[in-house]
Every structure is written in C-alpha cells, then in structure tokens.
Design brief:
The complex is a heterodimer. By secondary structure, chain A is an alpha+beta fold. Chain A is 61% helix and 14% strand. The longest helix of chain A is centred in the last third of the chain and has 30 residues, at 84-113. Classes of the chains: A alpha+beta, B alpha+beta.
Chain lengths: 114, 874
C-alpha cells in the first residue's frame, strides 16, 4: 500500500510542501511545485505531478485544507493552506529533520576521517 | 492513532464520492498543465513545444490519476468487491454447481440454526426476571431410597422462611385443581397456591387490582384469589371491575382481588397453565399438615449459593424427626429447570453439527472437482503475477460468499422449520420464554456461516494455489488431468462423510429402536376404543361416601345405557392418568413377618377388569355385592403375588387395611399386571372395590364400539345430567394418553431420524459425485481397457469396487466413532442398549446399500463406454 512506502524522499517532499504553505500562505499545486523548484535552485528536479500524492496524504491527515478559488490569471484552481494541526506537525518535523541531518552530518564526517 | 482514523475517514468518504473527486482532480491537473504551458510560452517556446514540455514536467497523467484514485480509495475493499463480483460471475456461469452447493449448505446451516434457536431459548436466555442469577430453587434430598424431591412440607418451609438470614426473599407455591363456579358454568381448573412473597420475588405487577397481602397468607386468613389474564378474559369478559366479585372454588367462596398480567408464566420444567391463584397458607388439610410446597428464593447480595445452602440445611435439620437423614439442596433456579433438557439439546446440537460437517465435506468435494476445471485459470493468474495469498483470498471469498447464500437460505428454512420444531418439542421442554430469533441466533448463524465457508473453502483454495505452472499451461485444450494428491484428498473426504453419516444414523437407529420397543410394550390392558372422563366431586356437595358412590353409580348406569357402549367402569387412579397412585406405607400381610411396602392401591368398580380387558389369573372379580357392610375384600396383581405370596397362593390371605387398623381385607382374586406408564415396569398393586373405599374422584372408562371420541359429548352430557355442577375434565382416549407418554421419545426419534436421513442423502450424493467425476476422467482409460478385452462386468466391478472401498473404510471408522460416542446417549435411550449390535449392523448395511447405489449409477455409465469413441476422444 502507498502509505507504507514512506521512503525518505516521500517524507521530505511532504515536509517541503508543508513548509512552503506555512511560509507562503494558500497556494495551488502549480504554485507549490514552482516554489519548491525555485528554492532548490533546480537542484531538485521533480515531476511536478508527484506533489499531488503528497497533497492528498497531507489532506487526509488533516494537516492542510483545500478550497476552490481563482488564480492570478483568472483560472479555477484548488488552493491549499496549512491548518493549525499542520503547523504543529511542521514544527515537530523540522525538529526531527535538523536532529536527523545533524546526526547524518556527524556520521559522514566520521567516515571522512578514516 | 487519531491520524489513522482521520485518514480512514477521508478514504471512506473518498470512495463514496469517487466520481466527484476524479472530476476535480482532472480539473486540477488541467489547470496545472495550462499554467506550465503558459510559463513555457513566456520562456519563448513555440506553442506545440510549450504544451509538450508541460506534459513532461507534470509527469505521466495516467499514472498520476491511478495513484490519486488509489489514495482516495480502500484497496482491500476494492479487492474484496472485485473478488465478490468475480465470484458471483463464476457462480452464475456454473449454476448447477451453485444450486447443489447452496442447497446443501442451506440444509446444514438451516438445521443448525433451527436447533440453536431452541437451545438458545431454553438454555442460554436467562429467566425473564430481574437479576435471575440470584434466584434459587430449594428441594429436599430424602436419602437414597426416595431421592431428591421437589416438594417439602409446609412446616419445614415455614421454618426456612422464618429463620434464614441468607435469602432476601423466600416464597412457596404449589399447584392444585378444583371445581370453579363463577359466572355460570362449572369448570374444572388447575390453580396455584402462592405465598404472599411469591409474586414480589418474581417482580410481577398486577394487571388489575392488587396481589396478596402478608396477612392474607395466614391460616384462617381471608379467602382471596388472583385471576390469570386468560381466565379473566374467558370467564369474566375482561370485566374491569372484577375486583371484589366472588368466585366459588370447590364450594368455598373467594373474593377476587386482582388479575395477573398477560404472559405471566412460572418458570417450570413442564408448563402449567395456572388459571388462578390463592394464598398458600389457605390450602392443605385443616392444620396445613398435608400442604406440600415448592420453595424458591432470592439470594442476598454477596451471599454464595453454598453459604445459603449450609445455613438453610442447618435450619432444616432442626425440623427433622430423629433418624431422618434428609437435607435441603439449593440450586440455581434456571439450572434446576433446564438441567434435564440440557443433555437432550446438546444431543440435538451434536447431531446438527455432524450434519453441517457432512454438508461442508460435500461442498468441499464439489469445490475440489470444480477447481480441477479451473486449474488453467489459476495457472494463468499465477503466471501474470498474482500472489498465492491473493489466489487463496479470492477462492476463500468465493466460498464464504457461497456460504452466505446457503446461510441466508438456511435461516429462511429455519424460520419455516421453527414452527414445526416448536410444535414438536415444546412439550418436552421447560416453559421459559417463547422460542424466537434474537441477536444470539443471528450472531450464531452468521458465525457458523463464515466458519463453514472457510472450512469447506480452505482445502480447495490451498490446493488451487499449488497449481504446477508450466505443466498446466503447456497442456492441450483437454482439461488438465487430475493430480494424484487431489484424488486422494477427495477420497479422504468421502471416507470422512461416510463415517459421520454412519454415526448420525446409528444414533437415530438407537432412538428408533427405543421408540418401537416402547410403542410395542404390552401395557397389560387393551387401550383401544376406551374413552376416559374424570370427575372430581366438590367435597362440600358430596361429603359422604354413600353420596359419592351414588353419584358415580348413576353416571355409570346412564353411560351404560348409551347405544354403542360396550362396558363402563370407574377407576380412581387409572393407568396413564394424571393422578399418581397412592403408595402405601408399611402394611401387614397375614402370615408374613416383614411388612409390605411400596404397594400401589386403586379403587375400582366391579366392571373395571372386564372393561380394561385385564385377565383374571385366580379367584374372582369384584361384584356389586362387595359393598359397605359386607366382607372387606381386595384383588392383587401378579407382581404382588410374586413378590409377597411366593409359592403359596395369595387367595384367602388377608392384608391389614391402612385406613382402619385391625380391619382386614381378604384377597379374593389375582389379576394380570398393568403398567401405569409405558416406561415403568409393573409393580405390586392392590385393588379395592369402590363401594367399600370410594374417594371423591373417579375416572370413568367407557369401552365403545368405534372411535371413542364420537361418544365424548354424549358421555359428558350424562355426567351433567346427574349434576351439572360437577364438571367432567381430561376427556381423552386411552390411546391418546398412551401416545402422549411416548410423544417425547417419538419427537426425539423423528428429529434425529430426519437429521440422519439428510446426512445419508448427502453422503450418498457425495459418493456419487466422486465416483461419477472419476468415471468421467477415466473414460479414456476405460476405453483402453475395453479395447484390450475387458468385459462390461469388469468395468462395473472396478468402478463400484473403488467407491465401495471408500464407503467400507468410512463405515469402519463410523462404527468405531459411534461406539465411542453413543455411551453419552444411554441416559436418553429407552429399552435399547447404546451398543445394540442389531442396530449397528442394520444401519451399516443401509449405508452400504446407499453407497452401492451411488457407485452403481456412474459405473453403469462407464460400462457403456464405446471403446472406439473413448479412444478417439482426445
């Protein structure tokens, strides 16, 4: 089942989407994808479609909500925004992430010295 | 956890509104594409290039849609629905298989559910009173000679009532009967005597008026009565002002104080329809000395049954005379009522359980045969990547689906059969609540159904998942030949169901033999064409012996005058009657040192022996001259003569009367033995001429020229003509009464017999199926054999031999199983040992005959094979 396929990438994408919504306010799918590409300065090349799986997952967990609205070019688009629970989740994920990256960083240095 | 639930909730909602979600996602993707295209245009791409690039950037649309759909759905549900749809399609395609399988399962599950409905109503449902587990029943243990008695004396009951500390409430009740006169016609009624605490113990509220007050439950207290709802409706036209009216019971006037609610029943082993109730203390002899009581109580909170038992026993001991080694026994009231039924119901449950197993085995066999045809399908599925577990799951879904079809139909069958079942066995079982379907029955049926589906599905499913891939796929269009392991598995199943059917058949056979034995018993009298009518004289109207005998003499003379009446007699304790004969206390027989005990006595009119066709062995019958004032005489039966007179003749010997000391009865005749009940052996009995010892009650026995019921109203009229206030009751023929006593065993025999018959049919069908299937598989082989010179007879023998071998193994195992199991039947059987060899042999032969027939039909088909056709068939 999709749920159990929680490899790092998937989790990372979820975190990035959440963080983007926290920083930018309500956005549609294209906006989120574009924003992530910009920030990563095109280091992270993803199929933009993959964020939809992430969005569904976040929706189902109640971390984001969705509403139909009108885009800057007068197009009907679905806008996603982070919820209160989502913010709490984000804080926790951020902590986990920095702790994890710290551990991995130190581990890699260790390997380097040898 | 909360998240899990949130996700599941979203998914379920998503599954429901799938179409809307799909559309929305489509729109979302469309917008996204447009936005990407626009951006690409801004970057300077050509329109075509921009659109193509946008698609690449977004990723595979189909895949996206699929992932989206999957995330918004319930994958296991999808799989289940898919399997179900597939299963239904499969079953539609194989309608023959489906019908046989569903019918088989419906029979098995239906029978099981029907019996469980009764089991549930009698054994599982608690008494319909508040906190029923604290209700206790108090009986007396009268030592090894008399055993446990339901009844205790009023004196002992009063002592327990007044002194105990462990019961929060104790009540006594008793049944009795009397002539009721109220609002017109006289009627004989069964009524109850109840202590004032009785109704409050059961938490009964009056429908009208009130219940008994404590001061009414006292010797010499006011005579009051509570009517049953039925009597109030039938005799008082549901008069709302009935309280305060008076009724006459055996000549005494009682004031009606209340009416009981409809549907009130006393929880008892055998249902009694009490028409009205009077206070317990007003019953019995002048001092209450003869009043017997059934005692019940409610335990105080926190008091155990054993503690209450030991306290009550201590009190009870203080009431006993020296040398009496008696005690009281407390038991849970419900247990007390149902303990006798438990064994019987367990037996029925076991029987339907076996039947259900046979049904399962049969369907499993069908599934196996079918799965051989489906090998190719399975192989293809495995080849394109379905996992084994997926295949097993699919096949199990199919079998559970099949089971549910069978279960639903079975429940419908049980609903129909329930009425018949109630009709059949309600007389055998205690009256608790009505037998009906409730959540327990439905839960049980559902559980059994699922279990059944898995039971008959699991083996075929595993078999199917082990298809050898390449071989099966490589084989030509001819269906894959059956693998050896499957053939032997099917043989094992046939052996199993034969064995199970035999166990069932032997059980039923034993009950049948017991029933036939009992029905064939010589009662010692001729029961055909005899009408019984009982009259209890109202004591106040017929206080003296001459008055009583004059009444009965008149009635008998009048009935004698009716056309078609052969002879008429009176008997105070008739065989097969409701009134149990008095057992004498110790008597003296002239010239015998030891006292005579355990002898029944009976008052009869002179024509009694002729009317009942009881043979005279020695001496003479009574005559009209044996009356008050003449020599007191007696007639004894042969059992008496054998037990007490030994070689000497009983004639002329004298017995001391138990009514008047020093009055001696001279034995003037010896007659043949009679049985009081079909299952009871004759025992010593003394007959007395009614003119010398008449009682206020008598059953009039009329031997008629044809069906006695045709004389019933004429006989009733003759009784009314003498005195219309003495209502005749219990009008029935002797044959009917006799049938009533055998009825429970008849019911057991019929029920078990029908289960066994079903089992036999199923087993026969099972054997037939396997043999027929293997014949169809071996057409080619048979063709070769015949081409090489085998005769039709050889083929016949070969095929029948194969099936018969399985049946014989099954019979052997079944006999062993039956020998091990029928021991548990001994207490339920009458007149036949649980290991009766004749039954075992006869039943085995029947089963073998059925097996032979089941083999013979396909064998004949095999023998007709034309070798040329069979060999060309490839």
């Amino acid at each position: 089942m999709t749920e159990n396929r929680s490899d790092i990438l998937q989790g990372t994408l979820d975190l990035m989407v959440l963080k983007t919504l926290a920083a930018m306010g309500p956005l549609h799918g294209y906006g989120i994808a574009r924003r992530i590409e910009q920030i990563s300065e095109d280091v992270l090349r993803i199929n933009q479609g993959t964020i939809y799986a992430s969005l569904v997952r976040l929706l189902q967990n109640g971390w984001i909500s969705a509403a139909w609205g009108t885009s800057e070019n007068n197009r009907k688009a679905k806008f996603y925004s982070i919820t209160k629970v989502g913010r709490r989740q984000l804080r926790q994920e951020e902590e986990n992430w920095s702790r994890m990256s710290g551990v991995i960083g130190r581990l890699l240095q260790l390997a380097e010295r040898r | 956890m909360v998240n899990r639930i949130s996700v599941l909730g979203h998914r379920i909602r998503g599954r429901i509104s799938r179409r809307r979600l799909d559309e929305e996602f489509e729109q979302e993707l469309g917008t996204h594409l447009e936005m990407l295209t626009e951006e690409n245009l801004r970057r300077g791409m050509s329109p075509d290039e921009a659109r193509r690039m946008a698609r690449v950037q977004l990723g595979g649309m189909t895949q996206l849609r699929e992932i989206h759909r999957e995330m918004w759905g319930l994958p296991w549900l999808e799989a289940l629905l898919q399997d179900l749809r597939y299963g239904i399609r499969q079953f539609r395609r194989n309608s023959g298989f489906t019908i046989v399988a569903v019918l088989t399962l419906a029979l098995g599950i239906g029978a099981t559910a029907a019996i469980f409905t009764v089991f549930n109503a009698v054994l599982l449902r608690p008494l319909p009173y508040s906190d029923p587990s604290r209700l206790v029943y108090i009986s007396e243990n009268l030592g090894p000679k008399y055993g446990v008695s339901q009844y205790m004396g009023y004196k002992e009951f009063a002592a327990l009532r007044d002194q105990n500390r462990t019961l929060s409430s104790i009540a006594g009740y008793m049944f009795s009967s009397a002539n009721l006169a109220a609002e017109g016609k006289a009627q004989h009624v069964i009524y109850g005597l109840a202590s004032a605490s009785f109704f409050s113990l059961l938490h009964v509220r009056p429908f009208l008026g009130r219940l008994f007050l404590p001061q009414e439950d006292r010797r010499g207290g006011p005579l009051v009565a509570i009517l049953s709802h039925g009597l109030w409706t039938n005799r008082f036209d549901s008069d709302p002002h009935v309280a305060g009216k008076s009724i006459t019971l055996d000549g005494k006037s009682y004031a009606v104080v209340g009416v009981l609610p409809p549907g009130f029943v006393v929880p008892e082993r055998y249902p009694v329809d009490y028409q009205l109730w009077v206070p317990l203390a007003t019953g019995g002899g002048p001092s209450g000395s003869f009043q017997l009581v059934e005692a019940v109580g409610r335990l105080r909170p926190g008091v155990s049954l054993s503690r209450a038992n030991s306290e009550l026993n201590t009190i009870f001991q203080s009431t006993l005379r020296k040398g009496e080694k008696w005690s009281v026994v407390l038991s849970n009231w419900q247990n007390e009522i149902v303990s006798k039924s438990r064994r019987l119901l367990m037996l029925f449950m076991a029987a339907v359980g076996i039947l259900l197993l046979i049904a399962c085995v049969n369907v499993a066999n069908l599934m196996l045969a079918r799965s051989a045809y489906r090998q190719k399908e399975m192989a293809v599925r495995l080849a394109v990547g379905a996992g084994k577990s997926r295949i097993i799951r699919q096949l199990l879904t199919e079998s559970v689906l099949l089971a549910f079809a069978g279960g639903g139909m079975g429940l419908a069958l049980a609903g129909l059969g329930k009425k018949l079942l109630i009709l059949l066995i309600s007389r055998n079982l205690p009256s608790l609540e009505p037998i009906r379907f409730d959540w327990r029955v439905f839960g049980f049926a559902a559980g059994v159904t699922v279990l059944t589906g898995i039971l008959f599905g699991i083996v075929p499913a595993f078999q199917a998942s082990k298809v050898p891939l390449d071989e099966t796929l490589k084989e030509a269009t001819r269906n894959a030949s059956e693998r050896h392991s499957q053939t032997s598995l099917r043989s094992v199943l046939v052996v199993a169901e034969t064995a199970l059917a035999l166990v069932l058949l032997i059980g039923a056979g034993l009950f049948l033999k017991g029933f036939l034995t009992e029905r064939g018993i010589n009662m010692g009298f001729k029961s055909s064409n005899v009408l019984c009518v009982t009259v209890d004289l109202t004591p106040s109207q017929y206080p003296t012996k001459p008055a009583q005998s004059a009444f009965f003499q008149q009635v008998i003379d009048r009935i004698k005058g009716l056309p078609g009446v052969r002879s008429v007699a009176g008997d105070s304790f008739p065989p097969l009657g409701n009134r149990t004969t008095g057992l004498s206390t110790d008597l003296h027989l002239d010239g015998r040192v030891a006292d005579i005990s355990d002898t029944a006595f009976d008052y009869v009119t002179p024509d009694y022996f002729r009317t009942m066709e009881i043979p005279l062995e020695q001496g003479r019958f009574f005559t009209d001259a044996d009356r008050e004032g003449s020599l007191p005489v007696a007639i004894v039966n042969q059992a008496f003569a054998h037990t007490y007179c030994h070689e000497k003749s009983c004639l002329g010997a004298r017995i001391e009367s138990w009514v008047l000391k020093k009055e001696w009865l001279t034995i003037v005749g010896v007659v043949g033995d009679t049985r009081l009940r079909p299952e009871k052996k004759p025992f010593p009995e003394i007959y007395l001429p009614y003119l010398q010892a008449v009682g206020p009650y008598m059953t009039i026995l009329t031997r008629t020229a044809g069906n006695p019921l045709h004389w019933a109203s004429a006989v009733r009229d003759q009784v009314s003509a003498v005195d219309q206030d003495q209502p005749p009751y219990d009008i029935a023929t002797l044959d009917e009464l006799r049938a009533k006593f055998i009825a429970p065993r008849r019911v057991n025999m019929l029920l078990l017999g029908s289960f066994a018959l079903l089992g036999l049919v199923l087993a026969g069908v099972g054997i037939y199926g396997v043999v027929a299937y293997s014949v169809s598989r071996r057409t080619h082989e048979v063709g070769i054999r015949m081409a090489l010179g085998a005769e039709k007879g050889d083929v016949l023998r070969m095929v029948v031999g194969q099936g018969l071998k399985l049946a014989l193994i099954g019979v052997a195992i079944g006999i062993a199983g039956a020998l091990a199991l029928t021991r548990f039947l001994s207490s339920l059987l009458y007149g036949v040992k649980a290991t009766d060899p004749l039954t075992f042999i006869a039943v085995s032969l029947i089963l073998i005959a059925v097996a032979l027939l089941a083999c013979y039909i396909p064998a004949r088909r095999a023998a007709k094979v034309d070798p040329m056709v069979a060999l060309r068939y490839e």
